[in-house]
Structures are given as C-alpha cells and as structure tokens.
Amino acid sequence: MKQGKLITMDEFTIQETRKFPQATGELSSLLRDIGLAGKIINKQVLKAGLVDILGKHGATNVQGEEQMKLDVYANETLINILKNSSDCAGIASEENDDHVCFEDTFSANSKYVVLFDPLDGSSNIDVNAPIGTIFSIYRRVSELGKPCTMQDFLQPGNRLMAAGYIIYGSSTMMVYATKVSVNGFTLEPSIGEFCLSHANIKVPENGKIYSLNQGNTLKYSDGMRAYLDYCMEINKEEGRPYSHRYIGSMVADLHRTLIKGGIFIYPADKSSPKGKLRLQYECNPMSFIVEAAGGKGSTGEGNILDVEPTELHQRVPIFIGSKNMVAKALSFLYPVTA
Ligand code: AHG
Ligand code: MN
Ligand code: MN
C-alpha cells in the first residue's frame, strides 16, 4: 500500500465490487449501513464508563430520554438503520426471539437479510475490555417483492455472502470477509471513516496461543482434558507450552486469533452439551471470516459452515483458528483408530 494514501472502506468496497460486473452495489450499501451503525454504537461505547453519572438502563437523562443498556442500544441502532435503508429485507438478532421482516416496498424488493449479535462480550463493558458487533449477510431464498421468511435466516454458513465484525477496542475496527478476501479497516476518528489498515488478512497456519474458559475444565470430556494437558506441557512443535489468553469476548479473542494465529475453543461440556455460542450469530460469521483467511472452523464433528440450522438461536461447539492447531485439537477429541 502506498504510504500516506488513506483508502476508506467505501472506496475499497466499491473498487472490489467493480471486479464483478453483475454486482448491483446493494452489498456495498449494506456494508456501509452496518459501518454507520458501528460508528454510532462506538460513540456510545466510549461513554460506557460514565454510566453512573449519565444514568443506568431505565433511568431518564436530563433531556428526558430513557437510558438504554448498551446491548439494547446496539440492537435498536442496527435495526433502525437497516430498516431505513433500502438494502435489507429483514434481520434476525441475538437479542430478539424472532426474525423481523421489513415490509415496505423497497425492503421487500431487496436481495439480502442480515443477522447479528449487536454487542458481543457484554460482560466486559464494566471492565473496559474490548467488545464488538458481529454480522452475517445472506442472499434471501424467498421470493423478491414479498416479505422475507424464516428460511432466509436458516441458511448454512457456506451460503454466506459476507460476514464481519466491528471491534470496540484500543482502536475501533471493522473487519469484513467475502468469499474472496478478508480486510480490516480502522476508524480514523478525525474524519469518522473506517480506513483500510489490514489488507488481505491471512491466519497463520500455526499459532502459539490457546484460548478457552479453562475454569470449565472439570466439565470437559476426557479428550478435551488430554488436549489441555498437551497445551500446557512442553510440546515438540514449540519447545515450550502454549500461552493461554482468554478475554471472554469472542470478537476480541477471535480478532487476536485472526491476526496472530492460535486456537479459540468453546466446546460442549457436561452442563452445555451443545456448547454455549450461537451458530447463526457467532460461530458461522466467525468461521466464514477465519476460513476466508485460510484458517479452519469446526464443531468437532464437521465444518461449522456445513451445519444446517434448524432454529434461529441454536448453539454449537466451536474449535476455530490456525488450521494446524485446530487439526491437532480435534485429533485429541476424536482419535483415529485403525
Ligand atoms: P454475549 O455477550 O453476546 O452474550 O456473548 C458472550 C460470549 C462470547 O463473547 C464469549 O466468547 C463467551 O460468551 C464467554 O463465555 P464464558 O464467560 O462462559 O467463558
Ligand atoms: Mn455474543
Ligand atoms: Mn450479545
């Protein structure tokens, strides 16, 4: 990249979509809408530490407006922006029980639906650690011109058109993946634009970090415990144990994994036989991003992206990150017997 030349996310997306003559520009507009929601949410996240002064959820501020919890605020911001744009036929959100169809003529004629986890890692808000927004974009399968249907939202990850996240961290970034590449854009606050900062991200094939909630060890399977022992002993590949890092915010743990390599795991355990994380809001978009960057995402039994969703809020176990680390972890869980 030429030094000194800022490329905004919009410019980049438009340049990229020009490579596909059949593109109508709707996907670019949708990414711009999501980026706009991210900037608005970011403004609120920056004030999170002042919540005791400005008023908590349910309290009324001096302008007579009711203060909202950040995850409710993030959810409403995304829904309002996507509803008012003409590029989205409907949404499904981790915060809503059911999907929502936008029934005005423009929305009903749009090709895409969006799913999101409006605020991921919300338990980290109080301690000022990174949090994020995760999103998925599917081409709808229902008839254009009619309201969208549940089937539009229950598509497997291998049918995703794009997915990404916004991380509200030491800087604010938007990362999005198409089938072709993964690119990261850092918010330049003085101009209020996401600018290309991490072009063509590739996950290293090997890594040195394992990331999971080790406090759950007693609930893990024997295979998982054997893998943990392997991570903590001096292993042949590294000549030292792996490092353990766990922020407890999937966006932040996966962002590190994407850039530095490593493995992130939220397995099934005795109290959560299907794992904790949600297929449609967390695991599919993150697997799509990681696989587009050359990594791997597995449920332990198969590729995450191949799981046929049966309900909006279903959970799956996840092993995701550097492809050689994921393969190694799976070899402990499902040893091949000749
Ligand atoms: P959310 O804040 O959207 O509910 O998601 C929290 C998730 C995810 O971000 C994180 O990886 C995981 O919960 C952490 O769970 P544990 O506290 O059980 O480790
Ligand atoms: Mn989440
Ligand atoms: Mn959430």
List keywords for this structure.
338 residues, alpha+beta, Fructose-1,6-Bisphosphatase, Chain A, domain 1, D-Maltodextrin-Binding Protein, domain 2, eight-stranded mixed beta sheet, 10 helices, 13 strands, 30% helix, 20% strand, binds 2,5-anhydro-1,6-di-O-phosphono-D-glucitol, binds manganese (II) ion
Any low-confidence stretches, pLDDT <50, length ≥5? Answer: none
Determine the N-to-C terminus distance. Answer: 50 Å
Output the CATH topology of the largest domain. Fructose-1,6-Bisphosphatase, Chain A, domain 1
Across the major sheet, the strand order is: 2-1-3-4-5-6-7-8
The assigned structural class equals: alpha+beta
* DSSP strand tally: 13
**Coarse morphology:** globular
* DSSP helical segment count: 10
How would you sum up the major sheet? 8 strands, mixed
Mean pLDDT: 92
Order of helices and strands: HHHHEEHEEHEEEEEHEHEHEEH
CATH superfamily of the largest domain: Fructose-1,6-Bisphosphatase, subunit A, domain 1
CATH level 1 name of the largest domain:
Alpha Beta
Q: How many individual domains?
A: 2
Radius of gyration equals 20 Å
CATH architecture classification of the largest domain: 2-Layer Sandwich
Strand share of the residues?
A: 15-25%
**Bound heterogens, unique:** 2,5-anhydro-1,6-di-O-phosphono-D-glucitol, manganese (II) ion
Helix content: 25-40%
